[in-house]
Specification:
441 residues; 9-stranded antiparallel beta sheet; mainly beta; single chain; elongated; 6% helix
C-alpha cells in the first residue's frame, strides 16, 4: 500500500512538471489595436495615444512606445500592462536644432511574460513650429522677442555690455510644450535654462536675435588675440592658446574699454598702438581674458596642458597660497586654491619670476604662499630645496612660524607699501637647489 502511494505521488509530480512545461512552452499572442490615428505632430509636442492590448494565452508585461528619427531612437515611453485593457500615455517628440520637417516612425512594442513580442509601426509627419514670438528671460525681467521671419526672432532694447538670460517659446499647440533655449557645453541648446551671455562692444541699445532652426544667435563679442579668436570658458573668462616668440607683438580686438585693462608687467608691455609685446621666453602659452577684473592672465603650456617643472629646470613654477593675487590681493587672492595658481615667468631660461606691488598685489606685512612644480598639489618647494638671500623674506622650515617651503616676512620688517618687488627663483644649479631672491625695483 505504501509503495502504491509513492507511485501515485511520483506520477502526480510528473504530470505537474509536464503541465508547467506546457505552460512555459506556450509563447502567447500579444495583440495591439491602436485607438489613436497617428497623422502629424510638431517637434516639441507630447504625442498622446491610446492602445488596446490583449493576449488570450499568456499574461502581458509591457507596452513600449518608441519614436525614431531615421534609425535613431529619440524617445520612449514604457507602460506596465498586466491585463487585457486600453492603456493611454504620451511620448515626447524631441525638439533639436537643424532637423527639417519630415517623417518619423512611431513603433508600438507589446511584450508578454514569455518575452513574445508584437510590433506595429506608424508614420508620423513632423513639422517645426513657427512660434508667434519668443520670450527672453533675465533674472529680473522678461522681454518679448518678435518674429521677423521664418524661425527668426529679434529683441531691441537698452542693455548693459553683457546681458544674461535664456529664451523660451510659447506652446505651439494643445499638445505642445514650452521649449527653453539656454547655454550648455559652450553652445546654445534646448532643454536648459542656464543663461546665455549676450554681449556687445558697449552698453546701450542693441539687438538680440535668435533662430529656432539653426540656434544661431547674436550678439557675442568676438575677441581676437594675434588674429586668433578666443573661446569662452565661462561668463567671465575667455582663452586662446598660442605659440609665441619673445618680443612678439600681439594685436587685440573686440575688448570693451581695452585701454582700462590691467596689463601684467611680467608678461606684457602695451605699446602706444595698443599691441601687447611678449616679455617671457618663447613657447606655448594660454592667454586668459578675465572680464571680472579686466586683465589678462598667462599660463605656460606643454602639449596643450599647463606646464610642469622638469628635472632639467625647464617648464613652469606655480604660486599657491595667501597674501598674493593679481591684479590685487583684495579682489583676487590666490589663497590655497590650485585652480587660481599664478604661473611664474621665465624671462631667462631656468629663472622664474613674479612681479608684485606691496599693498596691492602682495600683502606688505603678512604672506604665506609657496612654490609648486605644477598647477595643482604635488611637487613643491620645501626648506631643503629652496633657500633665499633676502633679509626681508624667509623660507619656512616648520619651526620658524611657517610650514616647510612657505614664505613669510621677517619679524619687525615689511615690504614698502607702493613699492614694486620681483621674486625670482633660480634653478640653474638644479631644481633641488633653488635660490629665491627678492629685489625692490
Amino acid at each position: 500500500m505504501k509503495n502504491l502511494k509513492y507511485i501515485l505521488f511520483a506520477l502526480a509530480s510528473v504530470l505537474l512538471l509536464n503541465s508547467c512545461d506546457d505552460d512555459e512552452a506556450v509563447p502567447g499572442n500579444p495583440v495591439i489595436d491602436s485607438k489613436t490615428t497617428f497623422g502629424s505632430a510638431m517637434f516639441g509636442d507630447s504625442l498622446a495615444f491610446t492602445v488596446a492590448v490583449s493576449d488570450a494565452d499568456v499574461p502581458l508585461s509591457t507596452l513600449k512606445a518608441q519614436l525614431y528619427y531615421g534609425e535613431e531612437k529619440v524617445s520612449e515611453t514604457v507602460i506596465r500592462t498586466k491585463t487585457t485593457a486600453d492603456y493611454s500615455g504620451k511620448i515626447y517628440v524631441p525638439y533639436y536644432a537643424n532637423i527639417p520637417n519630415g517623417k518619423a516612425t512611431l513603433k508600438l512594442v507589446l511584450q508578454n511574460i514569455h518575452f513574445t513580442i508584437t510590433e506595429k509601426e506608424y508614420e508620423v509627419a513632423l513639422t517645426r513650429p513657427d512660434f508667434a514670438y519668443l520670450t527672453f528671460v533675465t533674472t529680473d525681467k522678461e522681454y518679448r522677442m518678435e518674429r521677423t521671419g521664418l524661425y527668426q526672432y529679434e529683441l531691441t532694447g537698452t542693455f548693459p555690455q553683457k546681458v544674461k538670460g535664456y529664451i523660451k517659446s510659447p506652446k505651439a499647440s494643445a499638445q505642445g510644450n514650452e521649449i527653453s533655449f539656454g547655454w550648455d557645453s559652450g553652445a546654445i541648446t534646448q532643454g536648459t535654462t542656464t543663461p546665455i551671455s549676450f554681449s556687445s562692444s558697449s552698453a546701450g541699445e542693441y539687438t538680440i536675435n535668435f533662430n529656432t532652426l539653426t540656434y544661431a544667435a547674436a550678439p557675442f563679442i568676438k575677441l581676437l588675440v594675434g588674429g586668433k579668436e578666443m573661446q569662452m570658458i565661462d561668463d567671465d573668462n575667455y582663452k586662446v592658446d598660442l605659440t609665441l616668440t619673445q618680443g612678439q607683438k600681439l594685436e587685440l580686438s573686440g575688448f570693451p574699454n581695452y585701454d582700462q585693462w590691467w596689463i601684467d608687467p611680467d608678461f606684457f608691455v602695451r605699446g602706444t598702438d595698443g599691441k601687447l609685446e611678449l616679455l617671457p621666453i618663447g613657447g606655448s602659452y594660454r592667454i586668459i581674458a578675465n572680464f571680472k577684473f579686466n586683465y589678462f592672465s598667462v599660463e605656460a603650456l606643454k602639449d596643450g596642458n599647463t606646464a610642469t617643472l622638469q628635472a632639467d629646470g625647464t617648464g613652469a613654477i606655480w604660486i599657491i597660497g595667501d597674501g598674493i593675487g593679481k591684479p590685487t590681493v583684495a579682489g583676487n587672492q590666490v589663497s590655497w586654491n590650485p585652480g587660481k595658481a599664478l604661473c611664474m615667468v621665465q624671462h631667462e631660461a631656468k629663472k622664474y619670476q613674479v612681479t608684485v606691488v606691496a599693498g596691492t598685489s602682495v600683502n606688505a606685512s603678512d604672506i604665506n604662499f609657496k612654490f609648486f612644480h605644477q598647477k595643482d598639489w604635488g611637487g613643491e618647494y620645501g626648506a631643503t630645496t629652496l633657500s633665499t638671500t633676502s633679509d626681508v623674506i624667509f623660507v619656512g622650515d616648520g619651526t620658524n612660524g611657517r610650514d616647510g617651503g612657505n614664505l613669510g616676512i621677517v619679524t619687525g620688517k615689511s615690504l614698502e607699501a607702493g613699492a614694486t618687488y620681483v621674486f625670482t627663483i633660480d634653478v640653474t644649479a638644479g631644481i633641488s637647489k633653488a635660490v629665491l631672491t627678492v629685489t625692490k625695483k
